[in-house]
Amino acid sequence: MWATTFLLAVREIRRHLLRSFLTILGIVIGVWAVVTMVTLGNGATQAVKQQISALGSNVLQVRPGQGFGRGGGGPQPADFKIEDLDAIRVQIVGVVAVAPLVQSTGTAVYNAANWSTTVNGTNRDYFIAQPWTFTGGRRFTRAEEQAGKAVCIIGNTVRSRLFRGEDPLGKRFRIKNISCEIIGTLAAKGQGGFGNDQDDIVLMPYKAVQRRMTGNRNVRQIMVSVDEAYDTQRVQASLRDLLRERRHLNAEAEDDFNIFDTKQISDTLSGTTQILTSLLGAVAAVSLLVGGIGIMNIMLVSVTERTREIGIRLAIGAVAREVLLQFLVEAVTLSCLGGLLGLLLALVSTILLAPVLKVPFIFDIKINMLAFFFSAMIGVVFGYFPARRAASLNPIEALRHE
Amino acid sequence: MANDVAPGETLISLRGVTKVFGEGSTAFFALKGIDIDITRGDFVAVMGPSGSGKSTAMNILGCLDVPTKGAYRFRGYHVENLERDQRALLRRRYLGFVFQGFNLLARTSALENVELPLVYRGEEKAKRREQAMAALEKVGLAEWWDHTPAELSGGQQQRVAIARAIVTHPEVLLADEPTGNLDTERSLEIMRLLTDLNRDNGITIVMVTHEAEMAAFAHTIIHFRDGLVESIEAKDSVGVKA
Fold this sequence. Notes:
By secondary structure, chain A is α+β, with helices and mostly antiparallel strands.
């Protein structure tokens, strides 16, 4: 019986193609809006997460100064020393890796090519704290690190600028006044969260940079990678206590350094975009509701218009339930059709829009299923009232209806 | 299902059937207590001026309506006690309807129109096709199966309606002024078709008509006046016992 009811519904829809299309337009737009909003919103959340995780997951970044950058006025807070790193490693529980960052800039020269870039002096722990993959070569050895040997690992931008097609591994190039052997190449990461080119980078053992470029024993920044099993907040607190102690700050003094928790930032930012996504989705859901009312409207008109037809069906021997089911199935079929069309449109438009908005396209089966289910439900809810009206018609009066 | 009725035995029996519309001072007595018996295989014409109660009687005979008072027995069923849906099932199983205005589904082919009662009977698609085509064949419209009502003449539309009514092999065919919208020639065609169905297929026919010329095809003529049966005129042996 279900099959024949469905058949009757499809026949009826086919008979009024234009009207059927106009009926479902509201649902189509509603589903389209909901799915597009949520899909793009999820993409944006994902993009934020990716950009933050490029800074290293579960990493505390420690810099001198208050907040971002060094505040204006007053004496400049001192940089860190390598001994601070040793202390962190020994005294703080839950720390996986501690990496220094000694930064310098310089022009790199290879044959006729030159390229101005950033040099980061660091240690082997850096590769634990930062999610880099190697396209070739290796990290520094412990011996190289200890000795401060002039060995380099280069980012993708530096590689393409200086070496073009050539394989840089084992080659030597000059940066400032150092002749440096290339022992590793890094895979491209692309643009960072702040619009910077993350691949425009040369990595060297920190001692080499200190000795031959910055000329002091200062460390600009410390990266502390925290074990997943430990509470980052706790580790952050004990890190703060340790650094205050080592920097001889008394109880009233404010911190002259700041700790930047990438995980916290990531959670906050993705939380924000998620809230925005839900809001947009909710607004779009209202249009879906309006679409449902459109279906009810047309179904009511249709029942009135088809009163005589209903009379014929009743006279022929249709029971009330069959007439109810026919109109209900018709409404649900219409709304499901609208849902499908909306999903299709949403798929096409998100695929087209994602690159324009620079967010990744993520097909979320859940939101698609939910939107479809919701549109089917709308068919049931808004189709029931007109269907009941049809089923309760008096056959004699229905037959007489003009 | 209840009691099969042999040809010549009473199939339909109305006893003291009263139908009142409205209540109290505005109450209108459409039927004031009528007794009718119709035997299986009869061809009955129902005549009478408008407002005489013949349409109300037809609605009750067609199980579309129930009497306010009195009894209607059809094949042993006490129709006056049946629920709406039970009466629908009775119509589906034993009755066929032909209306003055044809009442075909618009924008629907003749074949699909004829198939409709079979859809509600839950017949298979292939069987549906076959039976619907056979019914169209019987009314002489087999070649017109894919035409919609708009593409058919009035006489053809009424024949499609008759095909729809007989496709389920009903015991009773209820025709409400089947020739009311047709010219004399088409009317006679329809009457010959009904006569054939009555004679060859043993279908009991109850037909409302104004025209004596059409009523002449029937074996029995019942005259209504003012909500009462005025006279019953049996033209031959297959008559009605008042």
